[in-house]
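So, is this right?
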Amino acid sequence: MEQNQRPKGETLAIVLAIIAASVIILAGIICAGVLVLGTVINVQTGLGSWAEGWNKYSYGSSGGFTASSDFVISEQISSLNIDWISGNITVKESEDGEAHIYEINDSDDSEDIMRYKFKNGKLTVKFRDSGFYRNGLQKNLVVELPAGAERDMVLNTVNSDISFDGLSYGEITVNSVSGSFALTETSCKEFDLDSVSADISCDFSAQPRDADIDTVSGDVSLILPEEPEDLNIDAVGGDISVNGAKSRFEYESDSSSGFGDIEVDTVSGDVKVETAG
């Protein structure tokens, strides 16, 4: 009996498609490894000698910090640098024009109280005193900032659900190992988020000039006020949807009428982008 054979051209196309898919998956795995390593290094650099499950949190000279679970800054804050090991983090607008920073802490150890330092407009917040700490320590942090002035924010965390609600920023930089991230009606000129495992949702009230989101595992949802000038998405193990148009693996678009450079890289997770423009 005569057997049907595929045309040579069709067979070659199938082989090339398999090779291309394998290369993309392999590249995704390599990128995932690099991203995991880079994010952990970034977080550990920000938090000192740290790793969850260990019992040492070190940030060098801690003598210049003040211990307080609740403090107020009346002067203008130009930048914030926050290191937080574990616990929810909420950033929102204050009601009285002053900055209020407080934690919800069940520990009775005075060394577990957060530390802060404020100098020349720069506010630095540390999870606790430098040194050994009880494993499993988890605290929630609330940061209330006055509206109006732009400021820069750097946030390093291990395991936190993070939410930004309102306000304007020059730059927001987040390095997180695990936990969700939600940004609602917030504007910033530059946005940089590196995460190993997180569902990410960003609703920008103003178009960012530059936004770079890297995550290994988790869905990404972006709402932009207008069409970006450049939009680049790489998603190895998920679906991509841009204003309802769906694709796989990658998406690129250039618009001479748009504004902003948006880049999203994820290995395992769906990416959804909605623009008003």
Residues 8-47 form the longest helix (40 residues). The chain has one domain: 56-275. The chain has one helix and 21 strands.
